[in-house]
Amino acid sequence: MSPAPKRRQCGTQQAHERLCEMYPAFRARQNGIEQGIRRSIQSGQAQRVTRQLITIPVVVHVVYKRDPENISDAQVKSQIDALNRDYRANNSDTSTVPDVWKGFVTDPNIQFALATKDPKGKATTGITRTKTTRDSFGTGDSVKRATTGGSAAWPRDRYLNLWVCNLGDGLLGYAQFPGGPAATDGVVILYTAFGTMGAVQSPFDLGRTATHEVGHWLNLIHIWGDRNDCGGTDYVTDTPNAQLPNYGKPKFPHISCNNGPNGDMFMDYMDYVDDAAMVMFTAGQVARMNATLAGPRKKVGR
Amino acid sequence: MTVDRAALQRHWVHSHEEDAEGEMVFRPASYGFPPSRGRAALDLRADGSYTESAPGPTDRPESAEGTWKLDGDELELNAADGSKRVLEIAAAEGDRLVVRR
To answer: What is the pTM of this model?
Structure first.
């Protein structure tokens, strides 16, 4: 059974299609971003811009109805700490990377810090707390609007917006690529999969849902290329072509798409495995993130 | 093997925790799944129409519609966009559907 429907009229996904319907310029902008990323990597501009460590200010919007959903400041900070390990390749579990790929582990050279100034310049903890009447939120972005029980985004040119809520339908998180509407720019994560302590639940208790979603926010694509037939691409050459998402804690190697002997790079953050099984970005992925920070997200953190 | 058409007519969701090598396991939508980065689903209706969904590029589910028919143990999915694919059913019993991959 292949999970990827083949309808791709206005983008590569339902959310894209919806954005295309709502914002006709989105598709054109998205294509422009892909071309710009290629140019930026080839010319070396991406590397130049990100030679210095970039620290991205983060606002965490905690939207809750029940007490457990109102996660603690400490839980929020544990997520920032996890991001800072993973986006500096300082996570100790890179030791689990198979020998053939140990040399592929690459430091993105990106850091995250809770914002200290709000959009109006006032001192802030970088955490907003919003009591809602909603039992849960779907993937229609209602958590990002005050009028639908959520909390409005802070300007994306200055902040990474992370929303934490009771995301419905058993979904751990979802993101938005660069180039979408400013009002919904950011990442949404289930409160039991955010950070490494407090309300978190195994096997999504190492903060890797945010690592994965922020990867999308920086324009990374799933390593199976979002198709079920080996015909998709993640626009990165050093992640082997893979057919489908891997789940759980796979055993090395898992072969698909004639990618033997080493198979799928399922230990990459952009697969679907458990938190404990995803531990690395590659140089190709880091180049894409650099190009995103040199291009469509060039203002944030600078 | 002949699969009972009536046994297929449910809203199936990928229970990836139960997958074995070469097999994907599906359970009814009401099964009570734990959180996931994304699950494929296939709603096979008695009138021959279906809706499927799968994780999209930013992890939101994306969906597609079409019509289905059963030939022996082969489930044929004809999507509204004209594409077609065939799934081989290994088992369809009560609350468990197994598809070969």
So the answer is: 0.92
